[in-house]
Structure formats: structure tokens, C-alpha cells
Design a protein that fits this description.
Elements (H helix, E strand, L loop, with lengths): L12 H9 L5 H16 L7 H28 L20 H26 L1 H16 L13 H22 L4 H6 L1 H17 L1 H6 L5 H5 L1 H28 L17 H12 L8 H4 L1 H30 L1
Helix pairs in contact: 2-3, 2-6, 2-14, 3-4, 3-6, 4-5, 5-6, 6-8, 8-11, 8-14, 11-12, 12-14
Length: about 325
């Protein structure tokens, strides 16, 4: 593992900002927007507005990137980031300064807010309150001493912002109104987003504890963190089965389509991640655990695509059977 920036050469501008922005993390925030949009069109029977979708998607990505950069700044200032992780750490590597990262974060937040204002102008008040809550959580996530992540509130923050609110916001953008459907049906994906964050915090238990901050991981400890991680990566599959079963057996409307069972195809990926987590102390490749957050993000992407595909498959089956 690289522990000093002195051993690394300085790459070109594109790679520096690729590492700083961490595009691999963006599916955590953009996938709920895609899912909520498709849900609004298929289940909510809304007309698809392409421009509104693009504004919502890029707005969410911009706000997520801004929050990540701000998080890097405060973690570095609190001396929580002292080592270079495989796919992140532009500040720790000495490639950009905290001032540059702060300016970039402000620009991304400005873009996200501007796109949000455009959606408020078109959709109205229903989307305004969701946007205010989302931006507020993003700013407070790591801001100074009140940062949510420093007080063991990071998990519920990402559960809301990059799961429930993302899906509900996308639905509202297309339909013009709120509904419980995108909020409830996005719970499985929201659990996986928590899994991404927990994988990061599980890896950083010692440095976070030494830095005097509290996360769910360091409050639980290493062993309980393994169990919690298992709940977060296997829970989404159980949640889908529960939602499908309850909506059909109890005749709750709208019924979650049986096509959502295709999400079970991602189960082998979850088992592979759990195996890497269990082998953290004697892994043949130490990077397996160090990069567990990135690998969990890949599971989140696959699971989200399967959920979205399930909606499309549901429409196709309905057309063939009609």
C-alpha cells in the first residue's frame, strides 16, 4: 500500500481530476434517478420529459461530486486521510490543494443548484422541498464539526440522499407530484448505497477512531461491521422478495412486478464481496478489502440496472400478453 505522495509522479490534468471526482462512485446517486424516472413512466404512466431527466441526472451527479470533494477537504484537514487508497485521494497524493478542491466543490454545487432551480421553475413546489433537503444533507455531510459523517449519521444521510430522495425526486420531476411508490421501491438500492459507505468506513475504522470521529463502523467494531455489511449487501435481495411477496399476497397496489426477481441474478456478486470482507485479515490480495467500497459500488450499479430492467421487462411482458 502506498503511504507517501513522494513515491508517486504527478500525472496529467485529466487523471488528476478523474481521481479527485471519482466517477466510479456516481452510480450510487444517478442510478436512483434513472430508476425513479423509468418507474414514473412505466408504473406512474407519466409522459417522459427528456430535458427534465437530463437536468435531474446531471444535477444529482454534480451535487454528489461537490459533496465528495468537500468531504475530501474536511477529512484531509482533520488528518483522517493519511494514506492513498487505490482509486481516490487526489489531495492526499498532493495532486491538488484543499483550496482547489473547495473551489471545484463550490462549482459543482452551483451547477447542481442551478439545474435544480430550472426544475423548480418547470415542476413547481413539489420538487423544491426535496431539493432543499437533498442539498442540505449534502452540505452538512462533512461540514466542519457538525458534519453528519463525523457523528455516525453518514449511513442514514446517504440512504436518504442517494436512494430514497433520488428516486422520489426523479418520479416527481416526471409526474409533477409525490408518491410513496418510488420511496418504498428504492429501499433495496438505498441499502446498497449504505453498503458502499460502510465498506469505506469499515476499512477506515482505525484512522477514524484515531481522528476522534464516530461512524457506524467504529462504534460497532470490526466483527459487528462484518455482520452489518452482510445485512447491507444481502438485505436488498430480501427486501425485493418481501416487496414482491407482500404486494401480491396481500394484494397491495400497485403490485411490484414479478420481473423484479431478476435482481437475484446479482446474488453471486454479493457472495463474492462477502468473501472478500471475511478474508480481510489474511487476504491473498490486500487490495480486495481496501477497494471493497468500489467493488460494492459495482454491485449497486448491477443491481440498479436489473431493477430498472425489471420495469422494462414488465412492460414488454404486458404488451406480449395483451
Amino acid at each position: 500500500m502506498i503511504t507517501s505522495t513522494e513515491t508517486q509522479g504527478r500525472p496529467g490534468f485529466p487523471k488528476i481530476w478523474w481521481v479527485a471526482i471519482r466517477p466510479f462512485a456516481l452510480p450510487a446517486s444517478t442510478m436512483p434517478v434513472i430508476f425513479g424516472t423509468v418507474l414514473a413512466v412505466t408504473i406512474g404512466e407519466a409522459g417522459f420529459d427528456l430535458f427534465n431527466f437530463i437536468c435531474a441526472l446531471f444535477g444529482m451527479a454534480a451535487l454528489h461530486t461537490g459533496a465528495n470533494l468537500l468531504n475530501d477537504v474536511f477529512d484531509y484537514k482533520k488528518e483522517l486521510d493519511a494514506r492513498v487508497n487505490p482509486v481516490s485521494g487526489a489531495i492526499v497524493r498532493g495532486w491538488i490543494s484543499t483550496r482547489q478542491a473547495t473551489v471545484a466543490a463550490a462549482l459543482f454545487f452551483a451547477v447542481g443548484i442551478a439545474l435544480g432551480i430550472r426544475l423548480v421553475d418547470v415542476v413547481g413546489m413539489p420538487i423544491l422541498w426535496l431539493g432543499v433537503v437533498g442539498v442540505g444533507i449534502g452540505l452538512l455531510y462533512s461540514l466542519g464539526s457538525v458534519g453528519l459523517k463525523y457523528h455516525a449519521l453518514g449511513d442514514p444521510a446517504v440512504f436518504l440522499n442517494f436512494g430514497i430522495l433520488g428516486s422520489l425526486g426523479a418520479w416527481t420531476v416526471q409526474t409533477g407530484s409525490h408518491s410513496f411508490i418510488p420511496a418504498v421501491w428504492a429501499i433495496p438500492m438505498s441499502l446498497l448505497v449504505m453498503g458502499i459507505l460502510h465498506a469505506n468506513n469499515w476499512r477506515d475504522i482505525k484512522s477514524d477512531s484515531d481522528g476522534g470521529i464516530r461512524t457506524a463502523a467504529n462504534l460497532m467494531g470490526d466483527r459487528a461491521s462484518q455482520i452489518y455489511y452482510g445485512v447491507l449487501i444481502f438485505g436488498p435481495f430480501a427486501a425485493v422478495l418481501a416487496l414482491v411477496g407482500a404486494s401480491w399476497l396481500l394484494e397491495l397496489g400497485p403490485r411490484m412486478p414479478l420481473t423484479f426477481l431478476i435482481t437475484l441474478a446479482a446474488l453471486p456478486l454479493a457472495f463474492g464481496l462477502m468473501k472478500k470482507g471475511r478474508a480481510r485479515h489474511n487476504a491473498a490480495n490486500p487490495l480486495d478489502f481496501l477497494a471493497l467500497d468500489g467493488a460494492t459500488a459495482q454491485l449497486n450499479l448491477v443491481f440498479g440496472l436489473l431493477c430498472t430492467g425489471a420495469l422494462g421487462l414488465h412492460v414488454l411482458v404486458g404488451q406480449l400478453c395483451s
